[in-house]
Amino acid sequence: MNHYETVFILNPVLSDEQIAETVKKFEDFLIKNGAKMVSKENWGLKKLAYAIQHKKSGFYHLFEFAAPGEVVSPYEQELKREERVMRFLTVRLDKHAIAWAEERRTRLKTKA
Predict the structure, then answer these.
(1) Rounded CA separation 42/24 (Å)
(2) For residue 41, which of 108, 88, 107 has the smallest C-alpha distance?
(3) Which residues of the chain have pLDDT under 50?
């Protein structure tokens, strides 16, 4: 099982219910296909560096998960099909990135 991280940006005109529904949809997709969720983060509404679909902001979400490699392609296909998702990026984490992500999570927990 490889470790992956996905950041996706949702359309800023969505309601809280629609955002929660979309996030749950992708989380359920991963779990159904054999992935194990390591971490989920809602980064909230942030300003974009450049306009995407004539929008200047978006709701950012981060998923960190462990999954077999064959899960990523259908997962990204689902992200592409969802009209609420403006952009996404999935990267495979190496051992150094995994350690950094764990440290980052512990730092966030101690601040909260």
Answers:
(1) 12
(2) 108
(3) none
